[in-house]
Amino acid sequence: MQNTTKTICSITASLFVLTTLAACNKAPEKKERPPAPVTVIEIKPTDVPFSKEMIGETAGYRDVEVRSRVNGILLKRTYVEGQNVQAGQVLFEIDPEPYKAILDQAKGVLSQAASNLDKARADKDRITPLFKENAVSRKDFDDANAAYNAAVASHDAAQASVRQAALNLEYTKVTAPISGMTSKLAQSEGSLISANGESGKLTTITQYNPLYVNFSYSEQDRQELESAQRSGSVALNASGNFPAKLKLADGSVYPVTGQVNFSDNRVDTTTGTIRARAIFKNEKGELLPGQFVRITLDLGTLKNAISIPARAVVQSQADFLVMTVDKDNKVVPKPVTIRPSTDGQVIISKGLSAGDKVITEGQMKAPPGSTVKPMIASAPAASK
């Protein structure tokens, strides 16, 4: 009996050990991950501003070369390089002494011509009544009239010479033809200046206010815009009145809104683009000619457009994708065609439809095919 009891206890102990080992070797149960929370917006087509961004280059409203009209030695410069000057301000002085001498000589010739004219007039006045009384011959009368006419012509020529000499003397003081900013001096003081050729160029004046921004758009852009206008999907601003905004190289936005004031009527055969220009006020001189800027044109309104935040678009190599949520809350990627817009928004021209739910936040936690917990966010209102 005692042996039987020991045997039963031994078997019981062995079963306990086996049960414990089996429990230790049992794999833990796999827990399912809860659906990741994501923010989505529901697509609702609406009218949005239609804009186009391009690269432009600033240019002066007027660039005028200041040139000498007479030859001579450049005596002095009377302005500070790179500073603003006013129209009519004296900028340079060329040695006036040779032109003073020429003017004095011309005045002397004029005095002599005036004396000859007085004598010829007196001779004509004396001989005219004598000719009427047949006291002098026809030849003497004709000679007196011819001498008078020649004296008049000589006097007129002498007067013209005086005016020319006075004008040349005035040209020895080179003045600013327009108001604006001067560039670097082209000729130093003491140089021999010639009215012809490059030595006659003294400086350049640029009018900065207003300022032009030159840019180009493609022939394809023009055709697509005209097609969209005909189909009614785009409503352009009345009379082609296109406001323009500038973004500078540092990313800042120029505070003044400009206006497109020129578009060429032909396509450049070398580039396939059409030249255009906008004009901006530049009263503080913040813009300088030759700057590269980004110019955004406000063309009008895009009808029934699909606009989503730019952060919702994922780029995969050369394609663009957006992550959508289907009726079972599963993530479905959709390829889209985008058109840049403003204020952090992009326009979807292909790939999405009204009612689609697009993930705008939490894409990293929502791989394709996974189940998510969508939270609806209201779409941003389109800016007017």
TrEMBL record:
Matching InterPro entries: MdtA-like_b-barrel, MdtA-like_BSH, MdtA-like_C, MdtA-like_HH, RND_pump_MFP
Domain Multidrug resistance protein MdtA-like barrel-sandwich hybrid residue range list: 62-202
Cross-referenced PROSITE patterns: PROKAR_LIPOPROTEIN
Stretches the record annotates as Disordered: 362-384
SUPFAM superfamilies in the cross-refs: HlyD-like secretion proteins (SSF111369)
Residue intervals of the Multidrug resistance protein MdtA-like beta-barrel domain: 210-300
Family: Belongs to the membrane fusion protein (MFP) (TC 8.A.1) family.
Name of the molecule in the record: Efflux RND transporter periplasmic adaptor subunit
Organism annotation: Deefgea chitinilytica
